[in-house]
Amino acid sequence: MWPTLSPLLRLLILTQLAFNVGFFAVLPFLAEHLGGALGMAGWLVGLVLGLRTFSQQGLFVVGGALTDRHGVRPVVLTGCALRIAGFGWLGYAERTWSVLGAVLLIGFAAALFSPAVESETARQAVHWERAGHGPRTRVLALFTVAGQAGAFTGPLLGALLLAVDFRTACLAGAGVFVLVLAGHLRLLPRHIPGRTRAPVRGGAGAVLRNRRFLALCGAYGAYLLSYNQLYLALPAEVERATGSQAPLAWLFALSSLLVVLAQLPVTHWAAERLDPRRCLAAGLLLVAAGFAVVAAARPAGWTGAGGLVPAAGFVVLLTLGQMLVVPAARAWVPDLAEDGRLGLYTGALSSLSGLLVLLGSSATGALLDGGLPPAVPWLILAAVPLLALCALPRRPEHPGGGPGTAAAR
To answer: What are the transmembrane regions (predicted)?
Structure first.
């Protein structure tokens, strides 16, 4: 498959790999740093993580609209520069206001470069499909694999650097983005053939009137809130079971390794048997099952190595759900977007989903701190993806269409 990809698609896929190496060298350890070294309460940790997600996912719509207007290159380069500054700031932040400023800058940086890279990858995947190479979901699955390869490497790098301190991990993450910035200054084209510039204004109304797209955002937002528990609920469970955060890096590595090894076969299987709606539904059911596994085991109060088994089951089922949900959702967006506004729609998917994460993250932090019976928080979390099934849009009428086909529907 790799030889059939254009040089631009290869660069975009490798970009996702590099982004995640730098990002995941820091993020998995942020909750413990905030709650341990800085002594923040659980609800405040949840709020900080939620604001980080919202400043990223919630502002994707800004990065997507700017990409439609100005092109991929300037938006990606600006985002990389801001991420470098944000990681450097976070490494030295000790007060709450300073931490909030750093995580907001880190999130906004991704709100610029991620929708630019993701929307152009989706656009190029449609062209690849139209050229007769196969379903676009295969390209998007390879994009996911590259990201997870970075997510596999990043936590291992971060765990090694934490032997020094959290600041060193932050500075190393910033260093990765310095290399990304330098590479893209040289390799990313100034103009990509086939891209047309769209005005920044005028697209939001069409997005908000697109009921099928909004329904997709609701379902994807519930998935994203569930996935965010890798950074909030999972660290708390690992700490309870072992009294240490050390196993966390290995659980993140397990998740990433599963995606690297199984994403392409799973996507190939799903593309042959399931339309995007069914693929999303199956993924959400697997995510709910992951929370249910921990809920079933919590009353027993297992600790030590045995106590990590439910957490590992949660990670495996959540990751399998992710393998189905993410490529299907990304492949569906070009069929719902207007001509010239794929960046806006790609960004809006993450922005509206990020709003749901912001609303849910503080509640989740309070839920985990609330002194409820051990299984109850995990059962409530299991209900979130199940409720999301009700929000799924109806089955697509024309799967495999290209950007702009939604305008006729």
So the answer is: 12-31, 37-54, 75-93, 99-118, 139-160, 166-188, 213-234, 246-267, 279-297, 309-330, 342-363, 375-392
Q: CATH for 2-186+208-403, among 1.20.1250.20, 1.20.120.140, 3.60.40.10, 3.10.310.10?
A: 1.20.1250.20
* Residue ranges of domains in the chain: 2-186+208-403
Terminal C-alpha separation, the chain:
32
Rounded-to-integer distance, Cα 395 and Cα 212, Å: 10
Task: Determine the Cα–Cα distance for residues 138 and 265; give it in Å rounded to an integer.
Answer: 9
Half-sphere exposure of 24 (CA within 13 A, CB side): 27
pLDDT tens digits along 268-322: 888 778 877 888 999 999 999 999 999 999 888 788 888 899 999 999 999 999 9
Query: How far is Cα 147 from Cα 228, in angstroms, rounded to an integer?
Result: 16
- Measured CA to CA in angstroms, residue 44 lies from 50, 191, 225 at distances of 10, 43, 17
Closest residue by Cα to residue 281 from 390, 195, 397, 156: 390
**Token couple for 209:** 């009137």
Q: Indicate the residue type of 155.
A: P
As a whole number of angstroms, the distance between CA 19 and CA 177 comes to 7
- Stretch 156-168: mean pLDDT: 82
Low-confidence winner among 47-51, 160-164, 397-401 (lowest mean pLDDT): 397-401
pTM of the predicted structure, to 2 decimals: 0.73
Answer whether residue 326 shows pLDDT above 60.
Answer: yes
Q: Which residues contact 149 (CB under 8 A, 6 or more apart)?
A: 17, 20, 256, 260
Q: Is 192 exposed, middle or buried (0-12, 13-18, 19+ CB in 10 A)?
A: middle
Six-digit token string for 100: 């909030």
Half-sphere exposure of 40 (CA within 13 A, CB side): 23
Separation CA 298–CA 403 (nearest Å) = 46
**pLDDT score of 365 more than 90:** no
